[in-house]
Each structure stands twice: as C-alpha cells, then as structure tokens.
Automatic annotation (TrEMBL), chain A:
Alphabetized Pfam families for the sequence: GRIM-19
Keyword Mitochondrion found: yes
UniProt function note: Complex I functions in the transfer of electrons from NADH to the respiratory chain. Accessory subunit of the mitochondrial membrane respiratory chain NADH dehydrogenase (Complex I), that is believed not to be involved in catalysis.
Protein name per Swiss-Prot or TrEMBL: NADH dehydrogenase [ubiquinone] 1 alpha subcomplex subunit 13
This protein's UniProt keywords: Electron transport, Membrane, Mitochondrion, Mitochondrion inner membrane, Respiratory chain, Transmembrane, Transmembrane helix, Transport
PANTHER family referenced in this protein's UniProt entry, alphabetically: NADH DEHYDROGENASE [UBIQUINONE] 1 ALPHA SUBCOMPLEX SUBUNIT 13 (PTHR12966:SF0), NADH DEHYDROGENASE UBIQUINONE 1 ALPHA SUBCOMPLEX SUBUNIT 13 (PTHR12966)
Record family assignment: Belongs to the complex I NDUFA13 subunit family.
Organism lineage: Eukaryota, Fungi, Dikarya, Ascomycota, Pezizomycotina
TrEMBL record, chain B:
Organism lineage string: Eukaryota, Fungi, Dikarya, Ascomycota, Pezizomycotina
Chief localisation class: mitochondrion
Family the entry assigns: Belongs to the complex I NDUFA8 subunit family.
Domain of life of the organism encoding this protein: Eukaryota
Function noted in UniProt: Accessory subunit of the mitochondrial membrane respiratory chain NADH dehydrogenase (Complex I), that is believed not to be involved in catalysis. Complex I functions in the transfer of electrons from NADH to the respiratory chain. The immediate electron acceptor for the enzyme is believed to be ubiquinone.
Protein localization: Mitochondrion inner membrane
UniProt protein name: NADH-ubiquinone oxidoreductase
Keywords associated with the record: Disulfide bond, Electron transport, Membrane, Mitochondrion, Mitochondrion inner membrane, Repeat, Respiratory chain, Transport
One of the Pfam families matching this protein, by short name: CHCH
UniProt keyword Membrane, yes or no: yes
Keyword Cytoplasm in annotation: no
Domain CHCH: 91-124
C-alpha cells in the first residue's frame, strides 16, 4: 500500500484503519448492565408480591394480617347481627300472636329464615 | 335462605321492640370499623376461646344458630367489650392515634405502623395482650421496620427530616420464628 489520500470514508470509518477504540460501552457491558437492572427489578418485584395485599398469593403477609384481623372480629359482628335478628323475629312472633291468636307455621322446616317482607305500622309514633 | 338480605332502610322498618326479659341483657360494643380493626388482634388474643365456642355453636346448629347461640354470642360480645374498655382505660391516646390514622389511610394497616407499635407496647405493658399473626413467615409483617407499601417510611413522620428515628422498630432485631 502506498500513500493514501484521506477522504470522507476514512473520517467516518473509525477503528478499522486507524486502530481507535469504538466510542461508548462495549456491547457485552451493555447487555450485562441491562441484565443486572432486570435481575434487581425482579428481586424487588418478588419482595413486593410476598408482602402485598392480594389474597390470592400464598405468602402475601399483609393479606394474611388483614384476614386474621377479620377472623378475630367476625364472631363479634355475627353475634350482634344474630341478636338483632332474634329480637326482630321474637317481636314479629309476639305481634302475630297478639293479632291472630296463633303463630302460623310458614315454612316446613325448623330453620330460621330471614324475613323478606315486614309489616309496617300505619303511623309511627316517633 | 338465611343469606337473603332484607334492607331496612326506611324509618318505619326500624323495630324498637327489645328482647324479651327471659334473655339477659348485654350492651353492644358500639365501636365503628376503624377502632375495631385497631383492636381486632387484642380482641382475638383475649377472646379466642369464646369466639371459637360461638363459631362451633353456629356450625353445630345450622339454620338455628341465631337462637341456639344467643348465650355464646353474649359471651363473645362481653369479652370484646371488656377488651375495648380496657384499651380505652389504659391506652386511650395511643388507641385514638392509631384508629384515626387508619381512618385517614383507607384502613391500610401498613400506613400506620408507628402508631401501631406504640399502641401494641402500651397494650402489652398494661393488659398483657400481644398481637400475633399466626403462621407468619420470617419477621411478622407488622414488626418489619421497612414497610415497602407505605407512603412514608415507617420510622419517619410526614414532613419530618430523614434519618431521625421517631420510634424504634420492635421487630428489627427479632429473630425469625
């Protein structure tokens, strides 16, 4: 090769002829860095799922905390509701007995059935 | 059948007739959802046997539990009311702070850990009731000093400068059990 004239292609073609390093990170370093960021992100995602508030995940601790707090409260709430239902039912039965002299057996079973209809007084005293 | 929900949303449907005298009287707890959520684990700690009795009675009397389990239900209510009364007597400030925090944060327990730790400490010191979550993995979630879903770090108040511990996380050094 003899004397070479410098032209446009020589300026753009860095590296090959002139032994200059390519600018920027090497591709392998870029891939490794991206992989590291992804691994870190999935690690954080896993931590979040384990602690999250979704009741479908087995290990989600916040959901289990919420469930146990409700488990401790349910008997209390249900007892109050049951007392109210029993009170209304007994009052209904007493009214029926007072009006018709007898308690008509509506259902062919001993189970308690929540009333769908209620007798309302014609005029309220409140 | 018993799951049908009547909606008593009219004034005339309010039945004020009390229970007959043959049924002993009991005062209802009367707390709203936030105080109940705040006190739930203490209610569970003291009243677990009564709660289990009641639920067993309900299971053994399908369809009739409303009347057969009135006695167990009264015990449940009395026990829970005693817990709420005791908390009110000994830890009123901490209790109020915690359930008001819950009310302000959509009932998200993880937003209110700092108030919860203060309440738990006070309740344990005075009433010997401890909040435990059964079958917790590692450090129980309510004792972790880092609450990753909270808006603010658990050790910092909104607006407080960072790196100043307002209260020590009780579980930061607790062994995994």
């Amino acid at each position: 090769m003899g004397e070479k004239r410098i032209g446009r292609s020589d300026i753009l073609d860095f590296g090959s002829d002139r032994n200059l390093p390519a600018p920027g990170f090497k591709p392998a370093a870029l891939v490794l860095g991206m992989g590291a960021v992804c691994v870190w992100g999935f690690y954080k995602l896993g931590q979040g799922i384990r602690e999250q508030n979704a009741d479908r995940t087995v290990n989600s601790e916040l959901a289990r905390e919420k469930m146990w707090s409700r488990i401790h409260l349910i008997p209390l709430l249900q007892a109050e509701e049951d007392r109210d239902l029993a009170r209304r039912h007994m009052a209904d039965q007493a009214r029926e007995k007072q009006l018709t002299g007898d308690n008509f057996k509506v259902y062919n079973s001993d189970r308690f059935v929540r009333p769908t209809y209620a007798v309302t007084p014609a005029n309220t005293t409140k | 059948m018993a799951a049908r929900k009547p909606i008593f949303n009219q004034q005339v449907l309010v039945d004020t007739t009390p229970l007959p005298d043959s049924v002993p009287k009991v005062n209802e707890v009367g707390a709203t959802s936030a105080p109940l959520l705040s006190a739930s684990f203490f209610i569970g700690a003291r009243c677990r046997p009564y709660n289990d009795d009641y639920m067993q009675c309900k299971t053994e009397n399908p369809g009739k539990g409303e009347f057969e389990c009135l006695k167990e239900g009264r015990r449940v209510t009395r026990c829970a009311a005693s817990v709420v009364d005791d908390i009110n007597k000994h830890c009123l400030d901490e209790f109020r702070k915690h359930w008001q925090c819950l009310d302000n944060n959509n009932h998200q327990l993880w937003q209110c850990r700092k108030d919860e730790w203060k309440l738990n400490k006070c309740v344990f010191d005075n009433l010997k009731l401890e909040k435990t979550i059964p079958e917790a993995q590692g450090i129980p979630v309510h004792l972790r000093s880092k609450q990753i879903y909270a808006h603010y770090p658990a050790l910092r108040d909104p607006g407080q400068a960072p790196f100043k511990k307002a209260v020590d996380a009780p579980g930061a050094e607790a062994p995994a059990s």
